[in-house]
Design goal:
heterodimer, A: about 110 residues, mainly beta, seven-stranded mixed beta sheet, four-stranded antiparallel beta sheet, 11 strands, B: about 120 residues
């Protein structure tokens, strides 16, 4: 099973900040990596797939990078609606599909 | 607009069963992979099962293998998750999600509580 590790666990941010979230895989997942955002009480929403391709309707302030075992989700100018939890997920070697434990963005 | 709606959650005693349903609208799910993912409130996401396009290939997490079964009714555009021999640790919000590139459409979730 590929273990996904996200850091940091929590990040305190302010609107307008540039943010970088990290995701590390225990073994190479090539670019078969997705990012999701979950607001409280809501279902996750796909942001990025293929490590760097924005999903339909996702603003350009979100960008993904990386390959192999190291990945980054960047938010160029944080908006209030970006608060919540971000999860990475690998779909290179399955089953099982595996998610990171999440990074929570909260107001500073 | 593609949409998934789950139903069938509830409170059930350990050892009993439930069947969850996920109804797709705005797209034909048989062209996609369909997943079930669960989440204990306040915790992370755990993948449960997937059924691929033609319904022939199904895969399960080790924690549910032999107890949970995915099936589908293509005439109704519904995917099911039959959950047998439920355990307290199966308590979670269960989401269905379709996969084309990443899990791009999610339902709102249905809550399963296993308690004596």
């Amino acid at each position: 099973e590929i273990v996904m590790t996200q850091s940091p666990a929590t990040l305190s941010v302010s609107p307008g900040d540039r943010v970088a979230l990290s995701c590390r895989a225990s073994h190479s997942v090539s670019t078969n990596l997705a990012w999701y955002h979950q607001r409280p009480g809501q279902a996750p929403r796909l942001l990025i797939y293929g490590a760097s391709t924005r999903a339909s309707g996702i603003p350009a302030r979100f960008s993904g990078s990386g390959s192999g075992t190291e990945f980054t989700l960047a938010i160029s100018s944080l908006q209030s609606e970006d608060l919540g939890v971000y999860f990475c997920q690998q779909y290179n070697k399955w089953p099982p599909y595996t998610f990171g434990q999440g990074t929570k963005l909260q107001i500073k | 607009q593609a949409q998934l709606v789950e139903s069938g959650g509830g409170v059930v005693q350990p050892g009993r069963f439930l069947r969850l349903a996920c109804e797709a609208s705005g797209f034909t799910y048989s062209s996609y992979g369909m997943h079930w993912v669960r989440q204990v409130p306040g915790k992370g996401l755990q993948w449960v099962a997937v059924m691929w396009y033609d319904g022939g290939d199904k895969y399960y997490a080790d924690s549910v293998k032999g107890r949970f079964i995915m099936s589908r009714d293509t005439s109704k555009n519904i995917v099911y998750l039959q959950m047998n021999s439920l355990r307290i640790e199966d308590t979670a919000v269960y989401y269905c999600a379709s996969e084309r590139d990443g899990m791009d459409v999610w339902g709102q979730g249905t809550t399963v509580t296993v308690s004596s």
